[in-house]
Specification:
about 55% strand; 2 domains; eight-stranded antiparallel β-barrel; OB fold (Dihydrolipoamide Acetyltransferase, E2P); mainly beta; Glycoprotein, Type 4 Pilin; 16 strands
Length: about 170
């Protein structure tokens, strides 16, 4: 599958085919291994090992760290890129989306209060699912508008846990 990857105003074409990756026409042996229980990915590229913390930052966007610097990457598959080139990227989001339960579970903790300002990637709530605690994070900066779930409450997938409004 082909992707367009943009980091720091530079875009490269990446084609993934099993353990072979072609970056701007140059083939590489590559493997990406997650480090269990952490946001860290171990990238093996042509025999060299790269340890990279990776955090989701919204649809097709990721925050990467390397040598103490943070980089935002946008990854679009070929089809999405083509559609965006035809119709445009759409209206820019003005604030973070509501935090929804990604799976059914039990709310363990809510880490914010109404009126709190949150940053992208900041922990907002902890949800227990299949005997594992999952910290749910804000997709973008915002102000907590309302909390819709409380500790001990069972929630279904897609249930709104916390809603936000844009930072003034």
């Amino acid at each position: 599958m082909k992707y367009l990857v943009s980091i720091a105003n530079q875009t490269v074409e990446v084609e993934v085919d099993g353990d072979r990756v072609v970056i701007d026409g140059v083939a590489h042996a590559a493997e990406l291994r997650p480090v269990a229980g952490t946001p860290i990915q171990n990238l093996l590229l042509d025999g060299a090992s790269w340890i990279i913390p990776v955090e989701p930052a919204g649809r097709g966007r990721w925050v990467l760290q390397r040598w103490g610097e943070r980089f935002e990457a946008e990854v679009l598959d070929e089809r999405t890129h083509h559609i965006q080139s035809l119709v445009g990227a759409g209206k820019a989001q003005t604030g973070p989306a509501a935090l929804k339960a990604p799976m059914p579970g039990l709310v363990v903790r809510v880490l914010v209060e109404p009126g709190s300002t949150v940053a992208a990637g900041q922990g907002v709530a902890v949800l227990e699912a299949m005997k594992m605690e999952n910290e749910l994070k804000a997709a973008g900066p915002g102000v907590v508008d309302a909390i819709h779930a409380k500790p001990g409450q069972a929630v279904e997938k897609g249930a709104v846990l916390v809603s936000f409004r844009p930072v003034a």
